[in-house]
Amino acid sequence: MPVEFLTDEQAAAYAAYSGAPSRAELERFFFLDDADRELIEGKRRAHNRLGFAVQLTTVRYLGVFPDDPADVPAEVADYLAEQLGIADASVLKAYGERENTRLAHVRELRRGLEYTEFAEREAELRSWVDARAWTTGEGPKALFDAAVSWLRERRVLLPGVTTLTRLVASVREAANHRLWETLYGLLNVGQRAVLDSLLTVPPGERVSELDRLRRGPVRISGPQMKWALQRAREIAELGMGELDVSAIPPRRLAELSRYGVDGKASLLRRHGDSRRLATLLATTVYLTSRAVDDALDLLEVLIATKLLARAERETAKEKLKTLPQVERASAKLATAFQVVLETTSEQVDVGTGEVTGPKVETVAAMWEQIEAVVPREELAAAIAALFELTPPLDSDADEAWRAMLVSRFGTVRPFLKLLVEVVDFGATPEGMPVLKALKSLPGMMGRKKVGPAEIDTGLLVGSWRRLVLSAPHLEPGTVDWKAYTFCVLESFHRMLRSKQVFARNSSKWGDPRAKLLDGAAWEQAKPTVLASLGLPEHADEHLQARAALLDGTYREVATRVPENSQVVFDDDGRLHFAALEPEPEPASLLDLRAAVGAMLPRVDLPEVLLEVFSWTGADQAFTSVTGGEARLRDLHVTIAALLVAHGCNVGYTPVIGGVDALKYGRLSHVDQTYLRLATYRAANAALIDYQASIPLAQAWGGGLVASVDGMRFVVPVPSVYARPNPRYWPTRRGGATWLNMLNDQAAGLGGKVVAGTPRDSLYVLDVLYDRDGGRRPEMIVTDTASYSDIVFGLLTLAGYTYAPQLADLPDQKMWRIDRTADYGAFTDAARGRIDLARVERHWEDILRIIGSIHTGAVRAYDVIRMLSRDGRPTPLGGAIAHYGRISKTLHILRLADEPGYRRQIKVQANLQEGRHALARKIFHGKNGQLYQRYQDGMEDQIGALGLVLNAVVLFNTRYMDAAVTQLRTDGFDVRDEDVARLSPFTRHHINMLGRYSFQLPDLPGGLRPLRDPDAVEEG
């Protein structure tokens, strides 16, 4: 049974002091309250009183009574002695002279503090660990730490380290076996054979059936769309999606399926029956919906880029080609018509006012004048050319590209029938006509004649009506069913994106309304949600308070406008801000920055990772996806190498070495088995917590301000999960965006990879709710393009202060509730009206929406798309937008009134830019381009980059903190305001190129020696 999941250092630190407690820990665990003093005061001698206090506080801090109370950190003894009025803490040495006294005190404390022995609660702990292991699938170290916390909270004395590690390992092992046996028991004999057949390699093939099925579509084309739907149908026909796996915790099922998706078939074959088939079942259940997700992802990008966008581009090119001909023909017509006007209109002498008749009196004479400048045959040719090259008068701007689109019917022909057969579509009442039309399309394909009665003419908007009903080649009484197909597909594409058409057998493209909390589930969750978010069940008083806040803020800020040089109103009453002047950098800051930078030790990137692991234990978060295998020797070295390979985008070659931990086979095994998004996030949480404990990071901020911004990556390989955008990648290649969150302590709290460059506002809430660790931020900064009134409303409801930058401020409407209120200089700017009655009418649904997001029942992205249709909010979306406009206007007023608020937003935005610049330097391989084809691969590689980025920042922060401390000791002029402006994104001292050192030197003091700033140039 594997129990070797603790390192020697971790085992030694268990239930023991590992250095002096921090000041915060001293104040939390070692402060003596009145009850403590009452217990202590009964002891007569100073050494007994101090020794008793040490025992009391140590058991509270460590969970055990110390074997030798005199062997505690001096800081603990001094802190307790000061509280007890004992002048000399060294009297503690006398406490250990009588063992009976210490044991009597232990018995007294056990009774008084109600501590129990481990044996009395062992069964209860086993049940608790079992429930946690069954639900979460956490690694043994995480379960061990949770068990220690459980024991401490319940005042149970900690057992020996071996006892607890064996308990955790055995319970976790049993939970894993129960998981496998439960899933295995759902299968009949035939289903087991079907699943086992997935691991076989068919004759003439190079890969197993599982390998084939788990590979998603890559290229964006009609044939690939057909293949994606056939794959989805084939996986569905395995029948595993019909099994009831609801008894399995979703997280465990997801972890098991991830192993099946990523692991080698040869490795899966080695496992016993229950484990192998349980993994295959979880994998096929996952792939059943994932294959439909993949197909609809491909369909969405195919319609958007290969059909609609390409038709528009090609139409624009054709227009450019014909432009000279149209210009010449138009010039001739204009010249001829000018002659008509001049010769057939009455003539007025501007000097005398005398009016005379037209120059010509007959049509023949007029034509004689026209032909003098434009021959009649040239004029006829010009008219014919214009009729040929320009749309009819009753056409619209879309007709040309829509007609071009119809010529690409061959792209959609292969998959239309499969689409409606494989995907189980549903629709809202608004989307139902489009869905019915979509399902009718296969029946029209290949027919020579389709009548108007067979189509839904209500869908024929704009130029589609002409193209479908009145195309020149149509026989009377027929329609162009190919044009109708594209009319339906255009509407379907729009409805699918707004979730008015959805797929029941898809997780990503499913109906978000079905996921919203409702009925008993909502009533059960409602009290907790409202208490957590501080929202009332009834809106009236809450809305009146918000209205009073807005009204009062308008009036208060208006009184200060005359003295505010940063605010200007134009002639239309619109608000403008003067540009923020950059903060000057005093000589003291420049000197401090140079001195600190010169003191940072020079290291290779892998050494940074290994040293950070030694501080934080973050490498312990990388647990095997296969379950209970013992950890490999020097696993932390292999993990560091893989983080460099992926985070620097350089692959295995630069990190391969002669030792076992750096050989190719070991790297490949650990990569597939230990590195995944869940372990990246768990490791990142350890780094975030450690960063927050460093005094320098605390000087930068309290962790309550965060920003969310996107970093763009070119994806040069064919991928469904990339989108084109000429602004960010000028060529036709697509790209992806890493939306990441950074707090004001320079710690990256998490992120999300999304295709292309969508509006960040669609994902901000999802990123906030899915952070890896750290304190929950209160104020959220984003760039100008990352907001909408609906997002303002949702973020405010979720308890965040939303602070987007507003570069286009004059175009932003300010909002009021009272139409008649006089807000001074803001009266004209406040031209929008907030309808509180609308908000109150929808309040229950608003609470249900934010409650569903808050509890994780539904993604905020899906909700935001659901709340808008064709760029316009639904009635519920409009109510949330009206609520959000209160916060938006308060934000604008604060921007106008508080230059410090504007500067705080700018500083946080600059911090994020600095992080992205460092990320670019780290992710330097392959020209900084992302070569992952699938979303999972993108998330894993960017997860590695985020972890390496946080490790570098943590390394820099700790050494910069040590440098600042050393400079202060040396008498350097260190000012607090300058310390707060130091940046942890420096990189000159870290080697990120070439081959690397994986040797971590001995660090007796916990840190490398700082360099001498005066000797830097000599090096």
Automatic annotation (TrEMBL):
Residue ranges of every copy of the Tn3 transposase DDE domain listed in the record: 607-996
GO molecular function (one): DNA binding
Family: Belongs to the transposase 7 family.
The organism's place on the tree of life at top rank: Bacteria
DNA-binding is among the record's keywords: yes
GO terms classed as biological process: DNA transposition
Originating species: Streptomyces cacaoi
Protein name stated in the entry: Transposase
InterPro entries tied to this protein: DUF4158 (IPR025296), Tn3-like_transpos (IPR047653), Tn3_Tnp_DDE_dom (IPR002513)
Keyword Transmembrane helix: no
Cross-referenced NCBIfam families: transpos_Tn3
